[in-house]
Amino acid sequence: MTPDFIAQTFARLISALPVTLEVWFLSIFFGGIIAVGVTWMRASRSTALAAVARGYIFVFRGSPLLIQLFVIYYGLPSLPFVRHSFLWPFLRDAFFCAVLSLALCTAAYTSEIFRGALAAVPRDQVEAARACGMSGFLLLRRIILPIAMRQALPAYATEVISMTKATALVSLVTLWDMMNVALKIRNDTLVTYTPLIIAGAIYFVLNLIIARFFAWLERRVSPHLRPRGH
């Protein structure tokens, strides 16, 4: 192991970083959208919608992400009716399957975070706002959402960091992300640990940046956490 080898390995891993970041961003983005819908269904007065939401959350939180990824990428395309449907152009694409599986998984966890945050909004503050004449969207925008956001941020930050690490699994469905490149270098050079250590260091830096961002965001939305004088 030489400095040149380390530099070349680092350069190759960085070249694959955009794929990792793209999978991560799209998974978080679409997972958040799905989570909002699932949270609404869970809080719905409709027994059927609430049951569907609970079932979805139970399945995706109760099964390993790797199995979900394999079922979507290897399992669904093997079904004849899928191959002859409009879904086939999407499900035969590794990138789409990777984003879909990660988004569905994180949506289940995120919806529970959102539900818990909404449930943690003090009822007396809501009633006080209603007594002042607030209702509907104004109550939601000025009282409920700001408080729920402060409640949800720490847990949601942990979920986003977990998804950053989970992107390494997409290497198992032929997607050339950073982890897959690290495994390729290891197999080609027979240098076992160096590529994985460098990849792990890059993941660590990414998560450190994400953690710092959410810490800053939490201070912005929580005045009591700001240093005095700011």
TrEMBL record:
Pfam families referenced in this protein's UniProt entry, alphabetically: BPD_transp_1
Domain of life: Bacteria
InterPro entries with a match to the protein in the record: AA_ABC_transptr_permease_3TM (IPR010065), ArtM/GltK/GlnP/TcyL/YhdX-like (IPR043429), MetI-like (IPR000515), MetI-like_sf (IPR035906)
Mode of membrane association: Multi-pass membrane protein
Keyword annotations of the record: Cell inner membrane, Cell membrane, Membrane, Transmembrane, Transmembrane helix, Transport
Example GO molecular function: transmembrane transporter activity
GO BP terms in the entry: amino acid transport
Domain ABC transmembrane type-1: 17-214
Membrane-spanning residues: 23-43, 55-74, 86-109, 153-176, 196-217
GO cellular component, one term: ATP-binding cassette (ABC) transporter complex
Subcellular location: Cell inner membrane; Cell membrane
Family: Belongs to the binding-protein-dependent transport system permease family. HisMQ subfamily.
Protein name: ABC transporter permease subunit
Lineage, broadest ranks: Bacteria, Pseudomonadati, Pseudomonadota, Alphaproteobacteria, Acetobacterales
